[in-house]
Write a sequence for this structure.
């Protein structure tokens, strides 16, 4: 299913939007890693996964998306797994750590957890440390809705230098703040290199989003 959709969706996007501009793909490490990126659109995981293919990924997604029988089947076929964003529990860490250690799947994590927040959280750092894999900062600029893809505004993706977490380093508040700043600085640098005029306008948070 994953391969089939890549070979279906990518040519379709190239047809309606042109070929994506991808910068610094050579910075991607060998083996497994965690892509971390600002969450700006529901398109983010799709665009990033297509940019990195043939490397395959798992995805952490809010559990509400898995409620329907077909949606549950379809998302799991794409290596997605549900997470309660309000009360994530131990499985939110254990599941991706096990996949990174025991499978050929890397993973994509949006450290803010939501499109309606700019506050980075430490889950990706903990997962990277326990799985002993690097974080790779990435940004996506371009259409943020399906309809906007027809505007011909280019999809642009850039990858930054891998961030390695010292396994002996305790992730206390000060250490988390240090790595979160490194991530944010990398996002800012990548955005600026792709387009110095780029500005992301965060949408208003829906009333029914309690995260």
């Amino acid at each position: 299913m994953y391969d089939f959709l890549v070979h279906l969706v990518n040519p379709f996007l190239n047809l309606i939007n042109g070929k994506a501009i991808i910068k610094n793909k050579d910075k991607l490490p060998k083996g497994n890693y965690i892509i971390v990126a600002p969450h700006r659109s529901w398109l983010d995981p799709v665009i990033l996964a297509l940019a990195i293919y043939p490397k395959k990924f798992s995805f952490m997604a809010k559990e509400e998306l898995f409620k329907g029988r077909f949606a549950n089947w379809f998302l799991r076929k794409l290596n997605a797994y549900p997470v309660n964003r309000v009360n994530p529990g131990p499985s939110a860490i254990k599941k991706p750590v096990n996949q990174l250690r025991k499978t050929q799947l890397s993973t994509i994590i949006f450290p803010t957890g939501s499109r309606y927040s700019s506050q980075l959280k430490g889950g990706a750092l903990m997962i990277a440390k326990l799985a002993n894999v690097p974080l790779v900062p990435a940004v996506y600029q371009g259409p943020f809705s399906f309809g906007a893809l027809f505007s011909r505004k280019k999809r642009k993706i850039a990858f930054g230098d891998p961030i390695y977490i010292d396994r002996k380093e305790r992730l206390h508040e000060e250490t988390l703040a240090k790595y979160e700043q490194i991530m944010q600085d990398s996002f800012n640098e990548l955005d600026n290199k792709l387009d110095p005029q780029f500005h992301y306008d965060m949408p208003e948070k829906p009333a029914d989003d309690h995260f």
Remarks:
- The chain has a mean pLDDT of 88.
- The radius of gyration is 17 Å.
- The CA atoms of residues 17 and 151 lie 7 Å apart.
- The beta strands are 21-23, 34-36, 57-62, 80-83, 106-109, 135-141, 156-159.
